[in-house]
């Protein structure tokens, strides 16, 4: 559970970050997000699947992938999805000093015009978080599906959604080659299950 749904203590370490979105009114809502793209092997399939279900999502993009696939980023936006910064080179904050991390984020920001930022692996140093919150809304997650895990089957990834999704959940899938098999099995079935349960599925609001 520590991985799939971060405990309260971990969330309290970064109170400036968005972990879950409280409902103000209307239907229970979850927020679908995809990390690590855009790549031609996976992102178009994700877009077509989302279109089939009439769902909009948020794509946290790696700047180097955007550099190589600018038309694909444009297509994500054209189809009505929101985007966020996921660093230029998918850096893990705990492994690099703040100045290098922030420089990498800034490089990605030159390609990804968004107030939303998600740290790879959900890991940051406090100094990094303090600097980032001056320029971005830091978006974490309430549910990591673990579609990237070679230890899980697609059925188990889907079960993670069914077990941990709740009103306000920010849900993470990955449009990456590593996650492909599990994501392609679980993601459409998760959308169907969430809709059957009465959830509205939305992108992260583009806070400014």
Overview of this protein structure:
The chain is α/β, with parallel strands linked by helices and 208 residues long. It has eight helices and eight strands; from the N terminus they run αβαβααβαβαββαβαβ. Strands 1, 2, 3, 6, 7 and 8 form a six-stranded parallel beta sheet that branches. The protein has a two-stranded parallel ribbon with strand order 4-5. The longest helix is centred in the last third of the chain and has 17 residues, at 180-196. The radius of gyration is 16 Å and the shape is globular. The relative contact order is 0.23.
CATH superfamily: Glycoside hydrolase/deacetylase
**What is the tally of beta strands?**
8
Q: How would you name the oligomeric state of the polypeptide chains in this document?
A: single chain
Low-confidence stretches: none
Which structural category do the helix and sheet elements fall into? Answer: alpha/beta
Terminus-to-terminus distance: 32 Å
CATH architecture: Alpha-Beta Barrel
How many DSSP helices? 8
Number of domains: 1
Order of helices and strands: HEHEHHEHEHEEHEHE
Mean pLDDT: 95
Strand content: 5-15%
CATH C-level label:
Alpha Beta
Instruction: Please tell me what the overall shape is.
Output: globular
Measured as a percent range, the helix fraction is: 25-40%
